[in-house]
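HUMAN: Mind sharing a backbone?

ASSISTANT:
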Amino acid sequence: MPEQFLLKWKLAIKPQWKTAFLSAAIIGFLCHMFVFTNILPNHDSLVNMHSPQLKGNLGRFFLSPFSGISSYFDLPWINGTLSILYLALTAVILTELFQLKKIFSIVAISGLIITFPTIASTFSYMFTADGYMLGSLLTVLALLITKTYKYGFVPGSVIFYLGVGVYQANLPFLSTLMIIFLVTEIVGRKITFQQLKSYTLRFFGLGIIGMALYAINFKLYTSFFAGNISSYQGLDSVGDSSGSIFDRFEQVFDSFTLFFFRGFITDSPINLFEWLNVAIFLLIAVGFILLTIQNHIFTNIPMTVIAIALLLLMPLSAYILYFVSSDVVYHMLMVMALVSFYMLPVLFYEHLTKPNFAAKAFSWTSVVIVFVVAFNFSIISNISYLNMELKYEKSTAFVNRLISRVEQTEGVTSESKLALIGRVQLGSSLSTRVIPENIPRMTGPLGDSIIPLPYHYSAMMKDHFGVNYQFISEPERQEIAASEWFAEMEAWPSKDSVRVIDDVVVVKLQK
């Protein structure tokens, strides 16, 4: 009976799981409520108000069925709530994976997972966000099953195959979680070399079999189903060996330092984000030293060297896709793996048991720094949502003006076609300078407009204004743009920026 089934589950649920789930859910809704309760589309959202998310050409073979759980409509509250559910379950799985017992450790890991900037970036694509969050959940579930059972890598690899089939960035997410798990097991639980070997072999089995299944799927899609792979992010050049291996290491170094220390290495201002990152890396170093001393790991030189080597491998692991294709360009949507760096001080704190001065100082500092980090992540997320609202309102207002101008232009008929050439400048110092300087490079939320191209205008006119203009083809648009009479036209908002030529309404937007 359902009642008995639920009772058994209730008895099986550990208190730590409840803490993780509730912490992630509460912090998640507090952090992201604004984007769940408002319509804040970006440029992709305009053309995905209803979309089956068939992204086989991007190698995301399972995004469609997982996104379909919430329907294929852009429903912020439903998609957002499901996303929080998946992330809360992810926090539960991480709590079990790392065997967390301390309340702060559980709350901190949950808070970091739910507020990390990648989440806000993904929520700017709310129409499909829940599918990506479910992919992340499957990825950590695969790791937990592999860690828990001797042959868990077999079912785990199938689950991971589904996860990476939602988004390829789940590969670095998985590999980086593997590394911090092994590091904390070595310095925190003092596992033997044989135990380390067992974990490593199972983790390799998980990754290799899972990626082999994905590669087979990829091959079947391109060979037997005549699927065309997009050139986006170098997907059509996977395995391309152009460029040296040193170029890949340079890409990793540049991206890694730009994310954590942008203000220190560029002309951008140094924000709290960068200072907190400095504190996090100092905590990682101090926590590692304290644990090796507390558990006498330093007496086992091979295991100490392995732990240090694993730490040094973390940047390579987080940016491993650079080694898959030379054309990959990492952005905020792809760097969920970097949350592992913020988790490390928490995991070190979890294993510190001797109440000496150094351990107490580290523990209190970790508590303060990590909570400030999570709070700052929340601030970054909501600044991002503020910019999303501003650029949506500016874009909507401009399209409203554009429609009004076209309708009032002499010679326009119901059969007239529309030609929009150029890009309008809707920027302000707030959206083009102040906000980008104060938060990391948030893919999706940043920018000053959601209507960069004609098909975005078409989608907004149809779905937001109920106006159905027929747009000219791209070759026709290029022909008009190259004409002498178009060059003589003045740019928007001049009165001469709109002309009717051969029943085509030509609008010359700002350059």
Observations:
- The longest strand covers residues 417-421.
- Residues 10 and 283 are 37 Å apart (CA to CA).
